[in-house]
From TrEMBL:
SMART domains: AAA, NIL
Domain ABC transporter, residue spans: 20-259
Physiological role: Part of the ABC transporter FtsEX involved in cellular division. Has ATPase activity.
Protein name as catalogued: Methionine import ATP-binding protein MetN
Record gene name: metN
Pfam families xref list: ABC_tran, NIL
Acetylation recorded as keyword: no
GO terms, molecular function: ATP binding; ATP hydrolysis activity
Swiss-Prot/TrEMBL GO biological process terms: amino acid transport
Keywords carried by this UniProt record: Amino-acid transport, ATP-binding, Cell membrane, Membrane, Nucleotide-binding, Translocase, Transport
Gene Ontology cellular component list: plasma membrane
Quaternary structure, from the entry: Homodimer. Forms a membrane-associated complex with FtsX.
Family recorded in the similarity comment: Belongs to the ABC transporter superfamily.
Protein's UniProt keywords contain ATP-binding: yes
Amino acid sequence: MTAPLAKSTGEAVVPPDTLVRLESVSKVFGKDDEGHRALDDVDLEIRRGEIFAVIGYSGAGKSTLVRLINGLEQTTSGTVTVDGVDITRLRGKPLRAIRRRIGMVFQQFNLMRSRTVFGNVAYPLQLAGLGRAEQEDRVAELLSFVGLLDKAWTYPEELSGGQKQRVGIARALASDPDLLLADESTSALDPETTREVLALLRRVNEELGITIVVITHEMDVVRAIADRVAVLDSGRVVETGSVRDILGAPQSETTQRFVAATVGNRPNADRLQQLREAYDDTLVTVTVTDERALGSVLSAAARRHGVDFEIVYGGITDLKHESIGSFTLALRGPDTGVLATVDALSAAGTVEGATA
Ligand SMILES: Nc1ncnc2c1ncn2[C@@H]1O[C@H](COP(=O)(O)OP(=O)(O)OP(=O)(O)O)[C@@H](O)[C@H]1O
């Protein structure tokens, strides 16, 4: 089963590897001057083949963003382009054609209780007018992909939350979408089931080549699955970049809060103050993607500069394909040696907070 990506219309001015682009998008609910600005001047670019996460607290505008991408809502200003087609003012048949190429996965699964698993997954195929035999083949293919072939004749209420979500994913894949929008798709699940569903979404991305937009309020989800992430705060994108960069060196206060809640390897301001009081030495926090490089810098520092070190805080965080380590070090030794060590650490990673 493959999901061939439809070709762009050719009229597009967007780069060919961009599947979704939002340009200066604002969405105001209610009257313009006294209305509520759910999204405010948002620019985003989602590339073909990636898993892109949008993270934000409740009310940040995440669901509104999803509804704009799948054409359920229209922008107040700005444009949304999907595969080269500006969908901002599309209506009727052309809009439906684009929407068929976008699959949706929901937090509450949205399965029909009166239909079996088969009936739920077959539903979009029925709507598309496929014959019974074709429906059966396709549903069998989809259910074996999500590991639920043996549950075809079961009703949703007999399934666990994780199984329900796997049915939801199978149904979303039924029409061979180019893009899957997963709106808080693991928020109703326990941690173990969350891991299973995220692993399935990764297979959807890697084996079927489907671009995925993951909407979440949990940095753990971003960390486990995404390539890039945008941080949404009160309707604005406050930071966007690779997961590695965002987790390694979060810039905005909102991002720092998300990262601190998940990663736990960077001291917060209070903890840093306690460490400063407890250690007379130079304290630095160094973030690296190659822990071995850090090890060799530190052993060279001891040898060449007579600088001793102690790890006073830190740890390693696993990302999708790599890991990042963040370590707060107390460096002690001659001033010139400590400075030379900080320089060498800067070459191995990102160094922050050198305090004498
Ligand atoms: N149809 C609507 N009419 C009026 N206000 C709306 C509408 N939809 C959303 N809003 C408001 O827009 C803001 C953003 O809502 P949205 O649902 O997009 O946020 P969210 O980040 O998805 O939050 P949550 O995680 O709680 O679902 C909220 O203040 C919300 O109350």
